[in-house]
């Protein structure tokens, strides 16, 4: 019965997204981009019926419903982490580079970005992948002084503090820990202040070798 509930298509990936902190429908979609909205809605209803997820009314009148793990759902963290740990050891991460997706890569970076300490003012980092079709070529990470992080796929209109330009495969490999900025210096272009570049590297964990946030990244 547990397998019938948890081993349906995309369910474990959806649980990973919920465990990572996503609560709104659109954010869950961004975390599982290959899952159709119809199937996502169905899976959430199934998990809710099983007592794994609870839907909470929005705080604002026009806000969106939020989905939170129940105590039963939170107990599944060890199961999801165990699967991720096994995949890290047994699945060739280089195979993931054959199925790279810029939107999913940037969402994972946004989700795991840790702006500590937060900036004194709004900081904007633009990532560009020149070889990608125009609609998926550029993304903006916006970090606010209160530590809130947003990801934009359209120009938010703010002044950009740091421009990062590279090919998608290189950025994905760096994020996965398969290589480093230093090794790919000729493939990555950084334009901005040295201070902002250092902050970006620290916030994304690039200054620490073997950071778990990077090592556990796998494309769905």
| Biggest sheet character | 5 strands, mixed
Global shape: globular
Count of the separate structural domains: 2
Number of strands: 7
- The proportion of residues in beta strands is 5-15%
**What's the CATH superfamily of the largest domain, by name?**
SCP2 sterol-binding domain
CATH class designation of the largest domain: Alpha Beta
Total DSSP helices: 10
Give a concise summary.
With 220 residues, the chain is α+β, with helices and mostly antiparallel strands. 39% of the residues lie in helices and 15% in strands. The protein contains 10 helices and 7 strands.
Overall description:
- With 220 residues, the chain is α+β, with helices and mostly antiparallel strands.
- The chain folds into two domains: 2-90, Winged helix-like DNA-binding domain superfamily/Winged helix DNA-binding domain (Arc Repressor Mutant, subunit A, Orthogonal Bundle), CATH 1.10.10; 94-215, Nonspecific Lipid-transfer Protein, Chain A (2-Layer Sandwich), CATH 3.30.1050.10.
- It contains ten helices and seven strands.
- It has helices spanning 2-6, 11-19, 25-31, 37-49, 71-74, 77-90, 102-112, 168-176, 194-203, 212-215, and strands spanning 53-56, 66-69, 123-128, 138-143, 149-152, 162-165, 189-192.
- Strands 5-4-3-6-7 form a five-stranded mixed sheet, with helices on one face. It has a two-stranded antiparallel ribbon with strand order 1-2.
- Strand 4 (138-143) and strand 5 form a beta hairpin.
- 24% of the residues are buried.
């Amino acid at each position: 019965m547990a397998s019938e509930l948890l081993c349906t298509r995309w369910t474990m990936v959806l649980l990973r997204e919920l465990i990572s902190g996503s609560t709104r429908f659109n954010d869950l979609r961004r975390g599982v981009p290959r899952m159709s909205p119809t199937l996502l809605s169905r899976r959430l209803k199934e998990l809710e019926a099983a007592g794994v997820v609870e839907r909470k009314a929005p705080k604002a009148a026009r806000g969106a419903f939020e989905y939170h793990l129940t105590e039963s759902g939170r107990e599944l963290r060890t199961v999801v982490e165990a699967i991720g740990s096994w995949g890290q050891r047994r699945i060739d991460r280089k195979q993931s580079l054959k199925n790279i997706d810029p939107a999913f890569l940037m969402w994972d970076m946004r989700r795991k970005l840790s702006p500590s300490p937060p900036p004194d003012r709004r900081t904007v980092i633009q990532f560009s992948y020149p070889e990608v079709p125009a609609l998926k070529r550029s993304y903006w990470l916006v970090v606010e002084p209160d530590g809130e992080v947003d990801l934009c796929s359209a120009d938010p209109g703010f002044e950009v503090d740091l421009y990062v330009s590279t090919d998608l495969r290189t950025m994905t490999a760096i994020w996965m820990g398969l290589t480093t900025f230093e090794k790919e210096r000729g493939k990555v272009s950084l334009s901005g202040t040295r201070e902002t570049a250092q902050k970006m590297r620290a916030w994304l964990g690039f200054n620490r070798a073997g950071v778990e946030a990077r090592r556990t990244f796998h494309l769905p």
